[in-house]
Design brief:
heterotrimer; A mainly alpha (262); B alpha/beta (281); C mainly alpha (290); A: mainly alpha; MetI-like fold; 2 domains; C: 290 residues; mainly alpha; 11 helices; extended
Chain lengths: 262, 281, 290
């Protein structure tokens, strides 16, 4: 009876806390509901929505959209690949490799990985513009840095969860840690490395599509450009391109993962 | 100078934090090139003994001397070099499932290889012929490029033994190499292992459950019981009486290969298992 | 180097049984082919992404980076700035919370409409065509909603409602509504169907079957995922600040555009603290309720 009462109490406290947070949030923001729900706001919305059709389909514009699409695709693919390599490099120092490992580098490496992944890709891109200029290059680097933090942590956990037997047998003979990793641990975690990397590519294609908003090239840059000029037809073409790209990459990643884990 | 000298060595099981000692006050001397079988019931401390000799765990008390030097008293670098000269084959074959047999066997060459040679070998294995010949001694040459997870339990054990053969070690420690092999294969494996050790002059210490195999293939038998050496004698001097005393209260592990009428009927299943595939094809 | 005595002995015994011709690794051609394929694919990728790492080290960019980074330490910490940042931090959290509430309102009908668990026609064999089409269509609505990044939604709605938190809230509401809707439906379908089916068979309405059959089973997982998404919404909220939704993101955008290193580093630290706190809180909540 006591446990039930405590549990109900917990749920009550949680719900109360959530309610307070929601009410406080609504109250403190100056949300323009009036603008949104007034009758002529609806008409404005409808007109706005209608202006998206038809999408701009002139061959010249389609060619531009296509090359922006390729730019976005390349940003996401290259960024994810770099992130996987960087993530693997950081995962070893960030893992307690065996039961007796003092793991002196673990706290620092984990801190670095956390810092990398807590900063969103867009923020990285905005900061990297200073060093790398405009265009897809800072976008690629931004994706690489953020995703390296995510993948590095996942890889470190995989390393710690791998079966210790093969590594122990090599370590007993005095083989150095890097070779132990290459010959005993990496073969075990390889399917997970591939799987996590492909899964992050799905996420990164969405991120890459919008990085252009801060100037990092690709479809995002086109989108923000045409939206700023209220060129809705061009905007809707770019949006369709984005959705198609995302769906295509999702499918490719899903198929690759299925193929590699047969 | 003896190759190996244990003096009142005591050690705990690696998983045990504090508590019962797995081996307690063990004295043992092994000369260069000797071939020794260590037998005893389950829980006698055989695995811990091998791990202690292999410097895989630090002894709680006593002295370990290998080729006149104490691995726990010398510098890191010297200990490192000593490690390269020994080889430990654990009970469970330490093979990464998705690795190919050729790479798994050639991993035995790592201590003597430079880093870049090892790296190159990951992409294209060097010394393939060496791996093949080692596997051939265990009748596994045709599985050279198979993946480890496509092999049965017994096949994996034989691959682990083939690694011992390419390892360039002068002290070979093998823990229960026959648990997944049927009797014929077991005899074959032990014969290959012992003859390879003899050819290279390496010292071989094997723990075994199969007492009859120990008697047939080894020149010296060390018996462990409750972490202490019960007897240590040349195989000719080991009598059925001594074995029964060793396995008192563990009669089901002894088997029925003693000469004459066996006074104990095994109560449970025999510890020797037949080759069983580990994956569903 | 020791003599390879084992090597020679191993060779000697085996040489009579097998030919000593050098063996080739059968996987080698495949690997080489894969390597070539990677290069062939990688090259155009690098060209399209304008991947020129040496640009990072040219004189102009190094000077700009150096100046910006040197301003990072010490981060700006005067009281007025910190007060402003506290207000902006709360704003970021508020946008995330309101946005997620809106997303919840969108997701619940999406999930209920698309889950096969509440299908009455499926009780007796295959689902009827009409309901099936409806369910698939709802699923696809959720997928489309979540496929468009929230930043894009925000950009669009800024055109309608102007700058400010409203566009951010709507963007999070729509994008996360799709995410929550899809995952809620998956969670609902992952449990044991028998309780719900029993209620439906005995004539209970769909909503009743949901409330008394499916929901009790899945409630912890649903709450857990929602809390996790709240944490993600805070990050999204910062990102949306870059397109005018206000909060920490907008402050950071301003700081970086003005090359104000001290403000930027201060905001980054505050942001990392916020994310860390939200992460801890979310993990603790999920543990307590799970």
């Amino acid at each position: 009876m006591n446990i039930l009462a405590r549990a109900r109490c917990k749920a009550c406290w949680f719900s109360a806390g959530v309610l307070v947070l929601i009410v406080a949030s609504f109250w403190s923001l100056d949300l323009k509901w009036g603008e949104f729900l007034a009758p002529d706001a609806m008409r404005k919305m409808a007109r706005f929505m209608a202006s998206f059709f038809p999408p701009e389909t002139s061959p010249a514009f389609l060619a531009k959209t296509w090359s922006a699409l390729l730019e976005t695709l390349a940003m996401s693919a290259l960024g994810t690949l770099l992130a996987a390599i960087l993530g693997l490099l950081l995962a070893l120092p960030a893992a307690k490799v065996h039961a007796g490992d003092p793991a002196r580098t673990k706290p620092l490496a984990r801190l670095l990985l956390n810092a990398l992944r807590s900063v969103p890709e867009l923020v990285w891109a905005a900061l990297l513009l200073i060093a790398a200029g405009l265009g897809p290059f800072p976008g690629t680097l931004a994706l690489a840095l953020h995703t390296a933090g995510v993948l590095g942590r996942l890889f470190a956990e995989s390393i710690e969860n791998a079966a210790p037997g093969p590594a122990h047998a090599l370590r007993v003979r005095g083989v150095g840690e890097l070779r132990v990793f290459l010959y005993a641990t990496l073969p075990q975690i390889w399917p997970q490395v591939i799987s996590y990397t492909l899964y992050r590519w799905e996420n990164n294609i969405r991120a890459a599509a919008v990085l252009g908003v801060v100037g990092a090239g690709g479809l995002g840059q086109m989108l923000s450009f045409h939206l700023a000029l209220f060129q809705m037809n061009e905007t809707s073409t770019v949006l369709i391109g984005m959705v198609l790209l995302v769906v295509a990459v999702d499918a490719l990643s899903f198929l690759s993962r299925r193929l590699l884990n047969r | 100078m003896q190759h190996l000298c244990l003096s009142r060595l005591s050690a705990r099981h690696p998983a045990a934090r504090n508590g019962v000692l797995a081996i307690d006050g063990v004295n043992l001397e092994v000369a260069h090139g000797e071939v020794v079988a260590v037998i005893g019931p389950s829980g006698a401390g055989k695995t811990t003994l091998l791990q202690a000799i292999a410097c895989a765990l630090r002894p709680v008390a006593g002295e370990l001397t290998i080729q006149g030097r104490r691995p726990w008293s010398v510098s890191r670098r010297a200990q490192h070099r000593m490690r390269g000269r020994l080889f430990l084959a654990p009970q469970v074959p330490p093979l990464p499932p998705r690795q190919r047999v050729v790479t798994a066997v050639l991993a035995g060459r790592l201590p003597g290889q430079s880093f870049w040679a090892s790296l190159r070998s990951l992409f294209y294995p060097r010394e393939i012929a060496l791996a093949r010949d080692a596997l051939a001694r265990f009748d596994m040459a045709d599985k050279l490029f198979e993946r480890v997870d496509r092999l049965s339990g017994g096949e994996r054990q034989r691959v682990a033994l083939a690694r011992a053969l390419v390892a360039q070690a002068d002290l070979i420690l093998v823990d229960e190499p026959l648990s997944a092999l049927d009797p014929t294969r077991a005899q074959q494996a032990i014969a290959s292992l012992v003859s390879a050790a003899r050819e290279s002059g390496a010292t071989l210490i094997t723990t075994l459950h199969q007492v009859e195999v120990a008697r047939a293939g080894f020149e010296r038998i060390v018996a462990l019981r409750n972490g202490q050496v019960l007897f240590d004698a040349p195989v000719a001097e080991v009598s059925d009486e001594m074995l029964r005393e060793l396995y008192a209260e563990h009669e089901d592990e002894l088997g029925t290969s003693l000469e004459g009428v066996a006074p104990f009927v095994p109560s449970g299943p025999m510890p020797i298992e037949v080759d069983r595939p580990m994956t569903c094809r | 180097m020791q003599l390879h005595t084992v090597q020679t002995s191993v060779h000697a015994t085996a040489s009579t049984a097998l030919p000593t011709a050098p063996l080739r690794d059968p996987a080698a051609p495949g690997r080489l082919g894969l390597l070539l394929l990677c290069i062939v694919v990688l090259w155009p990728l690098m060209v399209w992404a304008e991947f020129k790492p040496w640009l990072l080290f040219d004189e102009r960019s190094m000077r700009a980076t150096g100046r910006f980074l040197s301003d990072f330490v010490p981060p700006r910490h005067d009281a007025e700035f910190l007060r402003l940042m506290l207000a902006e931090t709360w704003r970021t959290v508020a946008i995330a919370t309101v946005g997620l509430t809106l997303a919840f309102v969108v997701a619940v009908p999406l999930a209920l409409l698309s889950t096969a668990r509440l299908s009455i026609s499926a009780l007796t064999g295959r689902m009827a065509a009409g309901p099936y089409v409806l369910r698939q269509a709802t699923r696809w609505v959720a997928i489309v909603l979540r496929s468009v990044p929230e930043l894009v939604w925000a950009l669009i709605f800024v055109r309608v409602v102007g700058l400010g938190p409203t566009s951010g809230v709507i963007a999070i509401g729509i994008a996360y509504g799709g995410m929550l809707g899809k995952v809620y439906a998956e969670i609902l379908e992952s449990g044991d169907p028998s309780t719900t089916q029993a209620l439906l068979r005995n004539g209970a309405g769909r909503l009743q079957a949901f409330l008394f059959g499916t929901l009790p089973q899945c409630s912890t997982e649903l709450v857990s995922y929602t809390v996790y998404r709240w944490e993600c919404a805070i990050r999204s909220s910062v990102v949306l600040g870059f397109v005018g939704a206000g909060g920490l993101g907008q402050q950071l955008d301003n700081a970086s555009k003005m090359f104000a290193g001290a403000e930027a580093s201060s905001i980054l630290l505050i942001f990392m603290l916020l994310v860390g706190l939200a992460d801890r809180l979310s993990a603790w909540l999920r543990k307590e309720l799970g």
